[in-house]
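As described in the Methods, two query proteins were run sequentially through the folding procedure within a single session, without resetting any intermediate state between them. The first query and its resulting structure tokens are shown here.
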Amino acid sequence: MLTTDRSAARAPVSVPTARRRVPPAVAVAGGVAALVVCAALSLALGARSIPLPTVIRALTGSDHGPDATVVTGLRVPRTVIGMVVGGALGVAGVVAQGVTRNPLASATTLGVNAGAGFAVVTAIFVLHLARPVEFMWFALAGAAGAAVLVHALARRPGDVDPVRLVLAGTVLTAVLASWTTALMLASQRTLDEARFWLAGSIADRELAVLVRVLPFVVVGMALAVVVAPSLNALALGDEAAHGLGVPVARIRVLGGSSVVLLAAASVAVAGPVPFIGLAAPHLVRPLLGTDHRRLVPACFVVGATLLLAADVLGRLIARPSELETGIVTAFLGAPLLAVLARRTAR
């Protein structure tokens, strides 16, 4: 007995230590550098690779050859649109996870993207729309309707169950996907117009489409910045947030509105690109912690980087053809969702 006690006394004591995080300035600089690299690759790589000096001369206006025309006329709009769409999806994801207190929440898993996509395909089927610039209001209506329906399905007396939110979003996504497929099979014209858009892509998009949806992105981003401090309190639970003076219901409405606006704008431009909003917050939190005042701008940068990286990868995989960005993100994001679901269960 004495020997055991002495052995225990000599045994090293394990003291839990806080995870050492990267200084915010270093993390931000790294994220911006990664975004710049992905933007440069987006301008240089494609069906035909263009040397970086030629890209720089095209951007400065000192080169007007065929390669420069490809850069300024096709790849610059594509890159700018990819940055805005990816950033919007990243912010929508972190706000969705903060509002629902569920690490699996995003515009994809909550059915918001599916609602926007179904509404746009319905508009193509009924109104014979053909241009993405015409999709915004239908995407907004579909996203808002899906968000309200998922919230209603997940609501319980006095609270909203975070687990039921994702379950309701998954069920609604499956239902809307089947309805969308039925509309496309009922009309060859709808199938031709919608199938590539539904795959999720920023190819052949004009800056006029981005200009049309930019006000919605700006308002959605502004709402995300406004609710960010309150999301920190909301993470403690509704009762604790109430005790700290946070208007929980109002914050959920404003945060939900931010997610709907950002997701609808993204879907209107690029189609339903999955998993960007799910992945971005999980990449940022280990570096910057859980303060949403830092997470919101950081997720914009990371979301933009992820989408541009996926778009460049899609160009290189099937060269000289291209693989749609949404297919690449779905292929890479599905294993991520499985890992996150397993970690959340533990």
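Immediately afterward, the second query was submitted; its sequence and tokens are:
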Amino acid sequence: MRHAHIHLIIGALFATVLFAAPAQAAPVLCEKYGAAAIQNNRYIVQNNVWGASTAQCIDVNQNGGFTITQSAHNNATNGAPAAYPSIYAGCHYASCTTGSGLPMQASASGFGALRSSVSMTYPGSGTYNASYDLWFDPTPRTDGQNTGAELMIWLNRAGSIQPIGSQVGTVNLAGATWQVWFGNTGWNVISYVRTSPATSLDFSINTFYSDVVSRGYGQRSWYLTSVQAGFEPWIGGTGLAVNSFSFGSGGGTTDTSPPTTPGNPAASGTTATGTTLSWGASTDSGGSGLAGYDILRATGDTFTRVGSSTTTSYTDTGLSPATTYRYRIQARDGAGNLSPESGTVTVTTQQGGGGGSCAVTATTQNAWNNGYVIQPVTVTNRGTSALNGWAVTFPLPSGHTITGIWNASYTVSGGTVTVRNLGHNGGLGPNASTTFGFQATRPAGNTQVPSGYTCA
């Protein structure tokens, strides 16, 4: 069942109350939006009862955590949670902790060294999740709502609840297996749900964000603004506790060693519009672990990234018939280190044919003074045979910049945007549809949104 994960939107309405003056010593917080700074403002603990009027109190642990001592919540499990009591480092609605180094751009040299850890205790009853909330914004924002990506990491969940959106995959990260969920609420929400519950986690921030970027849900140009850990209770919640929490650069454990070079790729199953690649696995000895592979493609002299995989195979779709392509593979680890590129395989697609054709429609979901969200953009196969890939093109108005896209990949050339399917949504039977969406900025006062979409 879905829930509306919008606690920070509502929290913005109460930002003055919540963060006006966090106390340095407040052992018990019962105010809906009460907060306390601990360890000389290294972290801030927040009660944050944003989704209910029922009582909640938390006992702040000055050593780096808190315990929910009272929680009378009884929210419907098909709606929003009652609260997000949590501890955080960074900047949240103009309240910044000391010494976090945040906001930090995800392309910065120090980003790969960022780590966090948490230890939690769960009661025997209640409906809740135990989760991290990592926020990213296209700008180094210290106040207001982030509009890039919300990266959630669910260590545990109890009851009939699930993340925003729908499950889009499964991945092995940080020594565990996670379901990957994606939705959009005006910003991308990417949730990693551990398939077996855990009471603790110690991880590199980049381990999860690298996967977000590889799926097209985040950008390296975006900034990490805060790292939060806590709970979203729907029913009950008394006894939930963060026993300890840490965030920092990881000191001397920074991984600077790249993975080994992947084996040379081979191609199979080539059609007029697609081909399947396979290659030998890389290894990583730097400590952060192998995170996946980037697929590089060229039709001329320049190789560009066209997709990624967490396995040793990848199906590239949306290709042109009777065209020669060259491919290389590059491995990446959890710290963002890249291996040398593999050798090259050359593939020529078959001659085209068949009755496949596609149509596209686009909806403006939200627009504001200097930006907008287009969602859904629906691609439909109007032909009589299956499509094995599609590409949508449209002109981007002058001064506009795409800041994020989901369920697709894209390139921009000369003011024209070309959007292509990912591996999971390129095959469309007759009358079948799929969707994608994107977010963009525009000059202040400019009211244009893209038009003139075409599909091939």
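Confidence is low (pLDDT under 50) at residues 1-25. We note this only descriptively and draw no conclusion about the first query from it.
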